[in-house]
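Chapter review: from sequence to fold.
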Amino acid sequence: MTIQTVGIIGGGAWGTALAQVCARAGREVVLWAREAEVVATIAARHENSLFLPGLTLDPTVRATGDLAQLSACDLILAVAPAQHMRGALAAFAPHAPDAPIVLCSKGIEQGSLKLMTEVAAEVLPDHTVAVLSGPSFAGEVARGLPTAVTLACAEDHCAERIAEAIAGPVFRPYLSTDLIGAEAGGAVKNVLAIACGVVEGRGLGRSAHAALITRGFAELTRLAVALGGQAETVAGLCGLGDLVLTCSSPQSRNMSVGLALGGGHTLDEALAGKLSIAEGVASTPAVAALAERHGVDMPISRAVNALLSGEVDVDAAIAGLLSRPLKSEV
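The token string follows.
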């Protein structure tokens, strides 16, 4: 399998950053964007002025609003938001080449409670699927700052070819065969980032912040294992690494939502004016429901779900967590 041309479904910040990664690796890139403004500004001045303003894109990155333009690509990166992944893949299906699909969005589909690999298996059943996940802020990746991620694929040879096609001096994929673990880590860390934002916004201190990350990681691991993933996988970049990054910086869209909630704002106010999607807001109810289905105790995620749904306020959510019965750490 030779990979020379990469098609990217999704012209947001992360899709654009991955376009830069592939271009730096020497690939020709066709970036599909739903927004006409994104297509126009990339064509006119090699800039995604809507989602990554001020960054000049590689001249080999070509934008289009026609999914059929991706039909000849050797590799597809699907970067549509998790709650829109099914629709994006279904629209792409009539044009899909016989090429691997790398799922680059982090979340769980509401209603069906399916991971993105399960969604892809239903919509594009004959395609090899991989998962790209890990600690990666789009702006930093796009600017060429050092980044390491997990690339999970059940087929070792295919994973190696994909890694070789997108890797570069400052972008390093580490290989795994555990797709479930890679996906579970990416989905749950967004929920926990909202919780960490609340802690920061409420001024509860660094000790509480560290405790929340640690106990949140325990929740994340329990769910990943219950779904069929491996604890070793989520102890790596796609779990612990991503969790530390997303829970430690206001650059994180999910943590910024929590910061606003902790500061006394409503959820609508926290989301107002944001172009990019905070995946954790949409995935939280699905994570809570999935945990209940599998009998996994996830008190932090459950508290975030209650907070976002309006069942409790910030103080009640915090009090509920602090009043839980004492127990063994392991």
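Two observations follow directly from the output. The chain has a mean pLDDT of 95. Residues 145 and 272 are 29 Å apart (CA to CA).
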